[in-house]
Amino acid sequence: MLFFRLILESCQFAFSALKDNRTRTLLSLLGVTIGIFTIIGVFSAVDTLRNNIEESVKKIGSKTLYIEKWPWDGGPNFPWWKYLNRPEPTYNNYLDLKGRMTTAEYMAYMINIGNTTIKYKNNSAQGSSVNAATYENLYIQNLNIVDGRYFAESESRGGALVTVLGANIAEGLFPNEEPVGKYINMLGRKIQVIGVLKKEGNGVLINTSPDDTAFIPFELARNLVNYDNFSPSIAMVIKSNYTLAEAESEAKTLMRSIRRISPQREENFSINQTTMITGALDQLFGIINLAGFSIGIFSILVGGFGIANIMFVSVKERTHIIGIQKALGAKNFFILSQFLVESIVLCLLGGGIGLVVVYFLAFLVQAATGVAIVVSLKMVILTVSLSTFIGLISGIVPALMASRLDPVEAIRSK
């Protein structure tokens, strides 16, 4: 009971000091508030970006390999001249690989035809993409159809004049009509709409949202365009009992055999996976986290000096009260605990204000942009821990000074 009374009394002293010296206290707490806001703000921004990237990665396959001409690990020193004269992966490469791969569950051949205009009567969807792929693309990209169906394997092999539309294209072409069963003009042909995809929203990564994409069979596209001009790729989903490394090793061996590449020569294709993107971004996120944490720590240290200043003033103003308490039998630990708890309360208040500001700004950003801001529980725990630690450090010297006061001298200081 004595311990809880001590905490309650110390909290009363803290809030009394806040009430009596509002301006001074507010300015002193500003450093802690800014520091906590900076640390949590940066971490939340990075967590939000990472979460959106992970969602985008899921759309292009977290356990998927892509065999392409160009590697994904670009950068300022990217040796593009090494890859410029590489051949594109051909449809025959795909057929040969599909017949020999043992680690792939699904494999698709695909191209993406960008900046296409799609028309229906007087409505048009400009700047749309056309994804031409074999039937297995349904499982590669985890397409979610809400109306109609995807084209069948027989339609894929036969190059049927059918298409599945992304949500934005369907809304633009058919604002007041049912899309399924209608014929649209695309790539110079009349093509029947057989399905509409669920609205996914824009991903952080480029070309990951199917909302502005129309999907057609590859056999249809190869009769309409020169597919070598559209950076074709061979995509494969790996079986659950195999790792990406095992599948990549098999794909590399088979592709070298299919293209008759001698052992001493470097392969003329790239095997890409989403971990190449996330791995590079993790390094960037680490730097951002470190920078934000460093800035926040310096701000908190400045705030800690402000809190220490408040505590020294508080000790000075309450010297005679301390003298009376010690004359009545209060132990040094009792006086020490009073000021330590008061210092911690002040820092927790500063940290709480910083956390409230973060949540408020997160609410505004989410309301304005629709992007869900991630403020995790570990950030709240970090706030409480940092604030408590800074409170202890800031209050320890003033508290020790108060606990060692001579009671007679302290009473006479009134």
Descriptive terms for the model:
414 residues; alpha+beta
Quick synopsis:
The chain is of the alpha+beta class.
Q: Your description of this structure?
A:
The structure is a single chain. The protein has 13 helices and ten strands. It has helices spanning 2-20, 22-60, 91-100, 137-140, 153-158, 167-173, 218-221, 244-258, 275-317, 319-327, 332-369, 377-403, 407-412; strands at 64-68, 104-120, 123-133, 145-148, 162-165, 183-186, 189-197, 213-217, 233-238, 270-273. With 414 residues, the chain is an alpha+beta fold. 55% of the residues lie in helices and 17% in strands. The two termini are 31 Å apart. The mean pLDDT is 81. The protein is elongated, with a radius of gyration of 33 Å. α1 crosses α11, α2 packs antiparallel against α12 and α9 crosses α11. Strands 1, 2, 3, 4, 5, 6, 7, 8, 9 and 10 form a ten-stranded mixed β-sheet that branches.
